[in-house]
Design goal:
The structure holds two protein chains of two kinds. By secondary structure, chain A is mainly alpha-helical. Chain A is about 70% helix and about 0% strand. Chain A is built from ten helices and two strands; from the N terminus they run H-H-H-H-H-H-H-E-E-H-H-H. In chain A, helix 1 packs antiparallel against helix 2, helix 5 runs antiparallel to helix 6 and helix 5 crosses helix 7. Chain B is an all-alpha fold. Classes of the chains: A mainly alpha, B mainly alpha. Chain A: Pfam families: EIID-AGA.
Chain lengths: ~270, ~260
């Protein structure tokens, strides 16, 4: 199979990346956007392999979330891996997933502080100061300044990320080295996942036991045992249920219904 | 008024889409208010309101899973009221914040509803219908339209009080429940990822990450740094491990049961 990712394909990824968050949702966040963005490339790579394409698409519908601009380098770096998997199958599919997870968390942190807390306030500040008295120069200056960084990151993120990924993947040929990389990526991915479980899943219990001075909130009692016990428990439970073959849709509606019922009886 | 209501609904929709996608800055209060001002024939007021709103909403940006007060809808409404109803800038600004909060409540609804699209996409992947996956992604824009239209159209056509009454008609426990569900739902995504990284011998690293964040107060970047070191050490030790005898002892049996 000679399907290769060309410059044209990468430009397409940059363009599709612009509507990355159209289907953002609480469950898997940017997952559908990620799949949508690389779908043309997957179709090209698996032209003669419908079963492989199906697997690749399903794999790329998994949870994904990062700072929107930072998705660009992650897309760029993982595309050579997808390319390698499709052409000779010497890379483990779970290595690609692990690499995505390992990158999305830290890059989200870097992206948030760089773009939202540094570049954006500076550009907006310049815009506000120029717009005094209703001067149109203010909004225009803001747009121009900010988009140098926005479009720059989006374009060079994908293109340079792809180069970086290709150089790295190109060096590796033997299966045993691939296994070691897979293990390392999985360690990174799992640890990042552990942090995200602790910081991004929240169950605000408002239930109070007892009255007056003796009142203790359920949250306090549980925190005494272990903070974040409930987020960890729920995440692990979901993992067990999925592994047992329960449908994700059912789990999802279960959570929404239980949350509303919980709110009605005053649990939250 | 009807024409203005329709026009502003569409503009607010496009700006809301831009706020989630592209992030070119058109939906930021400074620019959004300028655009609304230009459409209603008073650019100057738009820019003045925009720069004040920009300061108010400066710190409120979407980070991670949190849904911030909707500055986009707030800006559109505030500017429209200032120009159409001849309100003072101060009154318009004070209108912007409650509308932004009401719009945020609806946004939680919308983002929960969008979860359904995810499952349509799953089914499409199962059927190998890839055009349907793309279509599902585009449908997100429709959900955004409904969410924006519910607030902006009646607010311009009937007045802001109508919108506030509409929002308060939803039982607070349902809103609260959805908000709570929004906080729990990432667990579904993480649970699915755990099944992808299901390597038994490496499972402890998930709990190490969790413990570092929970008890050590480590940030994601801090844990990433540590996990890189751990991964390198793990690789070193597993490479230099002497091949042990193959017998499975009682402990191994217990652990694998």
């Amino acid at each position: 199979m000679d399907a290769k990712i060309t410059k044209k394909d990468l430009n397409r990824v940059v363009r599709r990346n612009i509507i990355f968050q159209l289907s953002w949702n609480f469950e898997r966040m940017q997952a559908l956007g990620y799949c949508y963005t690389i779908l043309p490339i997957l179709k090209k790579l698996y032209k003669n392999n419908p079963e492989g394409l199906k697997k690749a698409v399903q794999r790329n519908l998994e949870f994904f979330n990062t700072q929107p601009y930072m998705a660009a380098p992650i897309l760029g770096i993982t595309l050579p891996m997808e390319e390698k998997l499709a052409t000779d199958g010497t890379i483990d599919p779970s290595t690609i997933s692990a690499a995505k997870i390992a990158m999305m968390g830290p890059l989200a942190g870097v992206g948030d502080s760089l773009f939202w807390f540094t570049i954006f306030p500076i550009c907006a500040g310049i815009g506000i100061s120029l717009s005094e008295g209703g001067n149109i120069l203010g909004p225009i200056a803001f747009l121009l300044l900010f988009n140098i960084f926005n479009l720059g990151t989006r374009y060079y993120g994908v293109v340079k990320g792809y180069e970086l990924g290709t150089n790295f993947i190109g060096e590796i040929t033997s299966g045993s080295v691939m296994q070691r990389i897979s293990d390392a990526a999985t360690i990174l991915g799992l640890m990042v996942l552990g942090v995200m479980t602790a910081t991004m899943v929240s169950v605000p219990l408002g239930f109070v036991i007892g009255k007056g001075d003796q009142a203790m909130s359920l949250q306090m009692i549980l925190d005494g045992i272990m903070p974040n016990l409930i987020p960890l428990g729920i995440t692990y439970l979901v993992y067990r249920l999925i592994k047992k073959g329960k449908s994700v849709t059912k789990i999802l509606f279960g959570i929404i219904i239980l949350s509303i019922l919980g709110a009605m009886v005053g649990l939250f | 008024m009807l024409l203005n209501a329709i026009l502003l609904t569409i503009v607010a929709w496009l700006l809301a889409l831009e706020y989630m996608n592209g992030h070119f800055g058109f939906s930021r209060p400074l620019v959004a208010a300028t655009i609304v001002g230009a459409l209603l024939g008073d650019v100057k007021t738009g820019i003045i309101i925009g720069s004040s709103l920009q300061l108010i909403f400066m710190g409120m940006t979407g980070i991670g899973a949190a849904v911030p007060p909707d500055a986009v809808i707030g800006s559109v409404i505030a500017t429209a009221f200032s120009i159409l109803a001849n309100q003072s800038v101060e009154v318009s600004l004070s209108l912007a914040v409650p509308v932004a909060v009401a719009s945020q409540a609806l946004d939680i609804f919308a983002r929960t509803a969008t979860t359904g699209l995810m499952h349509v996409a799953d089914k499409a992947a199962e059927e190998e219908n890839y055009n349907k996956i793309e279509l599902t992604h585009y449908l997100g824009a429709l959900i955004t339209f409904v969410r924006v239209a519910i607030i902006v159209f009646p607010a311009i056509y009937f007045g802001v009080e109508v919108v506030e009454n509409l929002i308060s008609a939803i039982p607070s426990s349902v809103l609260r429940g959805l908000e709570v569900a929004g906080g729990i739902l990432p667990a579904v995504g993480f649970g699915m990822l755990l099944t992808m990284l299901d390597v038994k011998k490496l499972k402890p690293f998930y709990f190490i990450g969790f413990a570092l964040a929970t008890f050590g107060g480590f940030s994601l970047i801090g844990v990433t740094m540590l996990s890189c070191c751990i991964a390198l050490l793990f690789d070193y030790f597993s490479k230099n491990q002497k091949p042990s005898d193959d017998t499975v002892d009682e402990l191994d049996k217990l652990m694998n049961s």
